[in-house]
Amino acid sequence: MTAYESILTTREKREMRGHVFQDQDLVGIDLSGADLRGARFERVLLATCNLAGADLRGAEFVLCELRYVVLTGAQLGDNRFRGTTLVETDGLSEEDRVTVESVGGAFQQARASLR
């Protein structure tokens, strides 16, 4: 089981609606249950993050990379994933995956070691 870093309080997570994340690396962060409605992620790496139960309705991902992100129970709807790559995400239904691809997202398998 992965340990996620809790850098935000529950209250702070509830107040993230419409937040803009730009040119950031978010690694190992616990954003579970966060209100990210209408948030904009631009050129952001989300790696090994927990977004379980997060409200992502209306969130836009532009030229981002989501790697090993937990999305179990996350609420999607009216999203954009322009130029965004998702690698080994967990918790998306097949319907969610089709929707993500229809709005610009692309799923990739993790690369095997070259050793």
Write the layout of secondary structure elements.
Elements: H1 10-14, E1 20-22, E2 25-27, E3 40-42, E4 45-47, E5 60-62, E6 65-67, E7 84-87, H2 94-102, E8 105-108
Parallel strand pairs: 1-3, 2-4, 3-5, 4-6, 6-7, 7-8
Regions with little confidence, pLDDT below 50 for 5+ residues: none
Mean pLDDT: 94
Largest sheet at a glance? 5 strands, parallel
- SSE run: HEEEEEEEHE
CATH class assignment: Mainly Beta
Query: Distance N terminus to C terminus?
Result: 26 Å
Q: What is the annotated CATH architecture? A: 3 Solenoid
Could you tell me the radius of gyration in angstroms?
13 Å
Helix content: 10-25%
Question: What is the CATH topology descriptor?
Answer: Pectate Lyase C-like
Which strand order spans the largest sheet, edge to edge or round the barrel?
Answer: 2-4-6-7-8
Q: Count of DSSP helices?
A: 2
Shape category:
globular
Number of self-contained structural domains? 1
Query: Strand content of the residues, in percent?
Result: 15-25%
Q: CATH superfamily, please?
A: E3 ubiquitin-protein ligase SopA
Number of strands: 8
What class do helices, strands and sheet pairing give? alpha/beta
